[in-house]
Amino acid sequence: MARTVNLCTETNQQGRYREAEQLYHESETLYRRLGQDEWALKSRHMRSMVVRAQSRTTEAQQLCQSTVAEARKLELGFWLAHPLYVLALFARDQGDLQQASMLVEESIALLSNAQEDAMLGQCHAFLGELSLRQRDLTRARRHLETSLLLVQRTSTLRLIVTVQRLLGDLALAEGHYAEAEAIYKEIMLLFESKRLGDKLAMAQTLSSRARLMIQTKQLQEAVQVLEGAISLFKDLGNARRTVDTSLLLIGVYIRQGRLLRAGKHLLFAFKVAYSSGLIHPRTISTWLRIR
């Protein structure tokens, strides 16, 4: 049965979210019929993540909340840390960094006596990312270095790349541009040499590298890298990151004086945000009234 979930996970990591969603849904139904509630719940947990990756936020959050509620009822112990982590992602995306931190701290507490280095590493990476957003660079480094030690034990290349990218972002925030560039280059070499098929990790790395290029005034190079990142995020159906990266590109166009290009891309970003539900008509009308 674990093999079935792993097959779904491979599809997920390759960015085939719709296919992965269907597989997770089918496996959940099958496990329910077999009376395997734990495995059914694990399938639903993974489905919530691929639904979230497609920017269907409300549906994904409902799936995740129901998973947490049932996991508590079934007393699944440390496994509860996994859906709690996803709830933390929702809290972060909604701007509630304190709630996100509390949820991940609870996950870490649940994992304290479990042999779950990969998940622990992921939790510390998340706290490191939150600390970066809050500009607490000392705390960020502490969590990210702890995370790297944990994920290196697992030899999970996808997680190692994620933590390394965040360490590159930390170096960038500290103004250590050469260090950041070296880290991003090393990650890109890993993508080439190991043929790592994680499109999301690739797009995130491109986005981070573009931020470095903007800081070092390599604006034309930044445009090319951002266009690549946007293309990947769009292919993945990740509307939120498509819009965020598009806004970064618009800023570069404005700095270059390419206002027509900036306007066209602003329209593109708006269409993506509106069609995916990131912008609600009520939000627009409220903004207009305020203005």
Walkthrough of the structure:
- By secondary structure, the protein is mainly alpha-helical.
- Among the domains are: 1-91, Alpha Horseshoe (Serine Threonine Protein Phosphatase 5, Tetratricopeptide repeat); 198-291, Serine Threonine Protein Phosphatase 5, Tetratricopeptide repeat (Alpha Horseshoe).
- It has 15 helices and no strands.
- Helix 7 packs parallel to helix 9 (157-173) and helix 13 runs antiparallel to helix 14 (259-275).
- Mean pLDDT is 88; it is low at 283-291.
The count of helical stretches stands at 15
Tally of DSSP β-strands: 0
So what's the CATH class of the domain at 198-291?
Mainly Alpha
Which CATH architecture of the domain at 198-291 would you pick? Alpha Horseshoe
Structural class determined from secondary elements: mainly alpha
Helix content: over 70%
> Superfamily at the CATH H level of the domain at 198-291?
Tetratricopeptide repeat domain
What characterizes the major β-sheet? none
Mean pLDDT: 88
Which outline best applies? globular
Predict the CATH topology of the domain at 198-291: Serine Threonine Protein Phosphatase 5, Tetratricopeptide repeat
Order of helices and strands: HHHHHHHHHHHHHHH
Strand % is: under 5%
N-to-C CA distance = 56 Å
Low-confidence stretches: 283-291
User: Rg from C-alpha positions?
Assistant: 20 Å
